[in-house]
TrEMBL record:
<comment type="function">
    <text>Catalyzes the reversible oxidation of malate to oxaloacetate.</text>
</comment>
<dbReference type="InterPro" id="IPR010945">
    <property type="entry name" value="Malate_DH_type2"/>
</dbReference>
<dbReference type="InterPro" id="IPR001252">
    <property type="entry name" value="Malate_DH_AS"/>
</dbReference>
<feature type="binding site">
    <location>
        <position position="104"/>
    </location>
    <ligand>
        <name>substrate</name>
    </ligand>
</feature>
<dbReference type="InterPro" id="IPR001236">
    <property type="entry name" value="Lactate/malate_DH_N"/>
</dbReference>
<feature type="binding site">
    <location>
        <position position="168"/>
    </location>
    <ligand>
        <name>substrate</name>
    </ligand>
</feature>
<keyword id="KW-0520">NAD</keyword>
<keyword id="KW-0560">Oxidoreductase</keyword>
<feature type="domain" description="Lactate/malate dehydrogenase C-terminal">
    <location>
        <begin position="162"/>
        <end position="335"/>
    </location>
</feature>
<feature type="binding site">
    <location>
        <position position="111"/>
    </location>
    <ligand>
        <name>NAD(+)</name>
    </ligand>
</feature>
<dbReference type="InterPro" id="IPR022383">
    <property type="entry name" value="Lactate/malate_DH_C"/>
</dbReference>
<dbReference type="InterPro" id="IPR015955">
    <property type="entry name" value="Lactate_DH/Glyco_Ohase_4_C"/>
</dbReference>
<dbReference type="InterPro" id="IPR036291">
    <property type="entry name" value="NAD(P)-bd_dom_sf"/>
</dbReference>
<feature type="binding site">
    <location>
        <position position="98"/>
    </location>
    <ligand>
        <name>substrate</name>
    </ligand>
</feature>
<dbReference type="GO" id="GO:0006108">
    <property type="term" value="P:malate metabolic process"/>
</dbReference>
<dbReference type="Pfam" id="PF02866">
    <property type="entry name" value="Ldh_1_C"/>
</dbReference>
<feature type="binding site">
    <location>
        <position position="118"/>
    </location>
    <ligand>
        <name>NAD(+)</name>
    </ligand>
</feature>
Length: 343
């Protein structure tokens, strides 16, 4: 889907919430090629609510002022139907972020309506090869809502961001073991992008050695995993809100770009690797079909594959189950609010 030839037509990237914080931290990097590579021309369709169009106009002027080689045009919209017309890559960021003391699930109703409308608009106008990434919270369930209103787009095209959690897990493991993040592979986020997620080190390696073995040598065992590592990663979003006074922006933008990059380019910046993505379950690991659940995946060229056959410990399996149960409950909640379409 992504064109590596400068003669091919530009890829249409639609970004929602484009005047927001993550939007601002994302746009200039997208336009410079950090997301789809240095040979892919881009046309940006930016969507905002009417009150934010003024600020967005200013951002569009700044994008113009960069004279980016790869940027073929910037259009701004407040009508989702127009913003998603011909869209190849959709980044759904626009939503209300949580503030101190809220859980991401508290945003279900507030943000659900936005994603129903955008799902319908994608269904009507997006290009036949569209790939969708949901960042706005609660991301997994918002992706479920979006997909449910876009029955003509294959279900596997709808994903939600857990790359941020993945990167956080890598960072915490690197810190605990005194290695560089680049030496770590095989970390995985299982379940929901929420405090119930299971960030797993069970198949992770550090410079080729089992991470659990390296941790054991440092006397970091199950106690450290359950009392330090897992809660640290799973609650990192809340910790950032507490310390920074607002939800994560730069790290979220970076993770969103990496998610799209790893999924959609064949020569991802970081090379082939296992990442974490929330994708529609097709029954992997016994997860109910259709739930948008984070798994370890390998991906590239617009495709992804859930890594199958990994054995989780009993404790890991229980943690994962708990997070999947939360996804089921979120699905039931949006169903009862009438937010699911008829896919
Ligand atoms: N999945 C993740 O890992 C992750 C990480 C960080 C943040 N987030 C989420 O990303 C979202 C955006 O965060 P932010 O810090 O940029 O927030 P922000 O408030 O700075 O920006 C959100 C923007 O969305 C716009 N918006 C609202 N409704 C819209 C609609 N119907 N159509 C288009 N735009 C709309 C707002 O006007 C605003 O400009 C939040 O939901 C936040 O919780 C997710
Ligand atoms: O935690 C939040 O509300 C924002 C985001 O999902 C994060 O993980 O930082």
């Amino acid at each position: 889907m992504v064109h590596h030839n400068a003669q091919k037509p530009a890829v249409v990237v639609t970004l929602t919430g484009a005047a927001g914080q993550i939007g601002y931290a994302t746009l200039f990097r997208i336009a410079s090629g950090a997301m789809l590579g240095a040979n892919t021309r881009i046309r940006l369709n930016l969507l905002e609510i009417p009150q934010a169009l003024g600020a967005l106009e200013g951002t569009a002027m700044e994008l113009t002022d960069c004279s980016f080689d790869l940027l073929d045009g910037v259009n701004i919209f407040s009508d989702p139907r127009r913003a998603f017309e011909g869209c190849d890559v959709a980044l759904l960021v626009g939503a209300k972020p949580r503030s101190k003391g809220m859980e991401r699930a508290d945003l279900l109703e507030a943000n659900g309506a936005i994603f129903s409308e955008q799902g319908r608009a994608l269904n009507e106008g997006a290009s036949s090869d569209v790939r969708v990434t949901v960042v706005g919270n609660p991301a997994n369930t918002n992706a479920l809502i979006t997909a449910s209103h876009a029955p003509d787009i294959p279900l596997e095209r709808f994903t939600a961001l857990t790359r941020l959690d993945h990167n956080r897990a890598v960072a915490q493991l690197a810190k605990a073991t005194g290695v560089h993040p680049r030496d770590i592979e095989g970390v995985a986020i299982w379940g929901n992008h929420s405090a119930s997620q299971f960030p797993s080190l069970e198949h992770a390696t550090i410079a080729g050695r089992a991470a659990l073995e390296v941790l054991a040598e440092k006397n970091l065992g199950e106690q450290w995993l359950s009392k330090e590592f897992i809660p640290r990663v799973a609650n990192r979003g809340a910790e950032i809100i507490q310390v920074r006074g607002g939800s994560s922006v730069g790290s979220a933008a970076n993770a969103a770009l990496e998610h799209v990059n790893l999924w959609n380019t064949s020569n991802s910046v970081k090379g082939p690797q296992i990442t974490s993505m929330a994708v529609p379950s097709t029954g992997e690991y016994g997860v109910e079909e259709g739930l948008i659940c984070s798994f370890p995946v390998t991906c590239g060229g617009g495709e992804y594959r859930v890594q199958e056959g990994l054995k989780l410990s009993e404790a890991g399996r229980r943690r994962f189950e708990k997070s999947v149960e939360e996804l089921r409950q979120e699905k039931a909640a949006v169903e009862s609010l009438g937010l699911l379409g008829n896919r």
